[in-house]
Amino acid sequence: xxxxxxxxxxxxxxxxxxxxxxxxxxxxxxxxxxxxxxxxxxxxxxxxxxxxxxxxxxxxxxxxxxxxxxxxxxxxxxxxxxxxxxxxxxxxxxxxxxxxxxxxxxxxxxxxxxxxxxxxxxxxxxxxxxxxxxxxxxxxxxxxxxxxxxxxxxxxxxxxxxxxxxxxxxxxxxxxxxxxxxxxxxxxxxxxxxxxxxxxxxxxxxxxxxxxxxxxxxxxxxxxxxxxxxxxxxxxxxxxxxxxxxxxxxxxxx
Length: 254
Fold this sequence. Notes:
Blueprint: H1 4-11, E1 23-24, E2 31-35, E3 38-44, E4 48-56, E5 61-70, E6 76-78, E7 83-87, E8 90-92, H2 97-127, E9 131-148, E10 151-168, H3 170-205, E11 210-212, E12 217-225, E13 236-243, E14 246-253
């Protein structure tokens, strides 16, 4: 597997949230390399080669992208628990794949509720669209003249008033309902497509349990909970990757 795959996986993980970036720190026996401008660290044991990079996710989480290649003569397993992280001596949470799936399902649930509320609002507005009300004022002048016995009389009467009423426009109601149905269908389709893409994206890129045969590689990412920033304190990550019974520690600094 070419390392360009590692960089593609990194590109898919960026989000619109405020991001925190960590850069690799040189450690003896490890090599910092670049692919398309992205830094990654390469290290080897007698049985495995490991390439690792950090990708921002949000201000609270980051993604560690790992590629493990079997350079020995026996197969070995790699799982999402093969990666552990510490910062300044404290262990950081590294959710399992199943925990990440559960988190994604919760996000889908809240997104579905929001979509349902928006669709309900569209339908409520449409249901009242056919009802019409009208009102106004009127003013009328009446003139009268009288003639007789050599005399005449002239008079003007003014009448004012207010009128109002209501009615139902079936054509307007049907048009409003059709428009609401169309908008609601778009909302539902967008929510469904977004949820399906998120599930497929996580399934394709997340590090899960794999048996790596000699000469083969596996690549995936794990999510880590980032430590809080403290004033005047350097934040460093120690990322441990266990491969074929040996642990390699990589260091990244904010």
